[in-house]
TrEMBL record:
Residues making up the signal peptide according to the UniProt record: 1-28
Entry protein name: BIG2 domain-containing protein
Protein keywords: Signal
Pfam family, one: Big_2
Residue ranges the record marks as coiled coil: none
């Protein structure tokens, strides 16, 4: 065997000795480097400013396992304006494409690097999760926005991890194991997106307050929803529960607050885990004022007149409430009133008042 051959084998043995710990007797069978490969595949994507370090594994004659020969690699780049390489550390300089070549003992491997503009922002959807222990959900969709304004769906390229063992990742899903809080973290190159995850205990009871309500048109009222866990502890679910309305045109719920839309009745149904609660809503017009048929009266003694009272609502609706109003005279000796019928008694002045609901109307009456 030539001197060059022995020199090459000696150099390879030194490289492997520096990077892998094996029994010294193993090197007796060590031969030539048959092939090498750059971990991570034959193509890589990077963003401007990112750096990454590659590992190079070699198939060596006489050895069953691949060997890490990263420390003895000679690196080169096809375009230093796009990508530079120093001791296996790759740095993306500008948008474009370059080929990184690794060489050991005359054996080569390469990886094509595509460099894109810097990432301005990264976003996960949904941006947070709440799981009942034992339940699971699909991992988020992730998009990035580059400095040039271009948006990309990078969901399939994200590497996910969880911050603790309260949740686990299985088959593209995240599963809640123990009640508590955990952070789901996704990496795209050197960019990270964080998604908070709350793992909750099982809810055994849900109660809503008020269970019935009456609202004026365009008025709002908050619903308070309390959930009880299997261990007896309670939690405020007011803004977590999902509501539906049997008559959405009458009333709707947003962030736990009911808003009256039109006159009528509806039933709100809220669900959380496997629990259901209902709240009845009656949307009624708001009484604005009462109106009498006369603004003032002048009567002769022993004469009489019957007045009507009309209720006016904010919807524009009007209703005659004469018989159900409460009537009164400030001076019954001058004139009396019963169900809107005013009877003059003697000369003088009095005030006739009709009350209905939370409103009243008064007119002056003169008897002469």
């Amino acid at each position: 065997m030539s001197r060059m051959k022995w020199a090459l084998r000696g150099m390879l043995a030194l490289i492997l000795a520096l990077t892998v710990t094996v029994p010294s007797s193993a090197w007796a069978a060590t031969g030539d480097v048959i092939s090498i490969e750059i971990t991570g595949g034959s193509s890589q994507k990077m963003s401007v400013g990112e750096t990454v370090s590659y590992q190079v594994m070699a198939t060596v004659e006489g050895l069953d396992n691949k060997q890490d020969v990263t420390g003895g690699v000679t690196w080169s780049t096809s375009n230093a304006k796009v990508v530079t390489v120093t001791k296996g550390k790759i740095k993306a300089i500008a948008a474009g494409e370059a080929t990184i070549i690794a060489q050991v003992s005359g054996v080569k491997a390469q990886v094509t690097v595509q460099v894109q503009d810097k990432i301005k922002s990264i976003k996960a959807s949904p941006s947070s999760y709440t799981f009942v222990k034992g339940n699971e959900g699909t991992l988020p969709k992730v998009t990035i926005t580059r400095v040039n304004g271009k948006e990309e769906d990078v969901t399939s390229d994200i590497v996910w991890a969880v911050s603790n063992n309260l949740a686990v990742l299985e088959n593209g899903k995240i599963k809640g194991i123990t009640p508590g809080r955990v952070l789901l973290q996704g990496k795209y190159g050197s960019t990270t997106v964080k998604v908070p995850v709350a793992v909750t205990d099982i809810i055994t009871k849900v109660e809503v307050t008020p269970a019935t309500m009456e609202l004026g048109l365009k008025k709002s009222k908050a619903l308070k929803v309390i959930g009880t866990y299997s261990n007896g502890k309670t939690v405020n679910l007011s803004k977590s529960i999902v509501w539906t309305s049997s008559n959405p045109s009458v009333a709707a719920v947003k962030n736990g607050t009911v808003k009256a839309l039109t006159e009528g009745q509806t039933t709100l149904t809220g669900t959380y885990q496997n629990q259901t609660v209902t709240a009845a809503v009656n949307v009624v017009p708001t009484l604005q004022k009462l109106v009498m048929g006369q603004k003032s009266l002048v009567l002769s003694p022993q004469s009489s007149i019957t007045l009507g009272v009309m209720a006016q609502y904010d919807t524009g609706k009007t209703t005659m409430v004469t018989s159900s109003a409460v009537w009164s005279s400030s001076k019954p000796g001058v004139a009396t009133v019963t169900n809107g019928k005013i009877v003059a008694v003697s000369k003088g002045k009095t005030s006739i008042t009709a009350k209905w609901g939370n409103k009243k109307v008064t007119i002056p009456v003169t008897v002469k």
